[in-house]
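Form 7-S
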Amino acid sequence: MKNARVTIRYAKALHGLAIENRSELDVYNDMKKLSGACRCNKELTLFLKSPIIKTDKKVKILDQIFKNKISNISKLFLKIITQKKRESLLYDISNKFIEVYKKKNNIETANIITAQKIEPELRENILNVLRNRFQEKIELNEIVDNKIIGGSIIRVADKQLDSSVSSALQKLKHKFNKNLYIQDY
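Output:
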């Protein structure tokens, strides 16, 4: 619980600094990169959480990893967080920053799950429909999952539109499993 408050405070502080320096979008993209790197690379997460590796060594390694990939504000933020011995919270801080940014800019995240990659024209059509429906900026995350066989599943906030073939087959299976035979007495 304590870490949750710390992460939101650091995220809000970084957001304020980004606004002040007119680089809010750059820092947002940097935090997406950092979050993705931590999520996909277990070694990086273990490195950040390691109490054995000294702070100055962590600062140098983080600087080498993100050398030309992130803005100066984000580099300085990483350095400060590492020097304060809070580097184990970087993944959570980056995710909280993304939440703060999206909330301030009225951006809603939509996840679309399909059996194969969506063509750009269809992607734009889906985005236009979602923008008209929700009256907000929409960020579309595409997930390819061949288990749904065909169709798509679209999730926005707490709403879901499931038009997948696997879901239709499940519904049919449940319908056929019902005992429709009624005995006459």
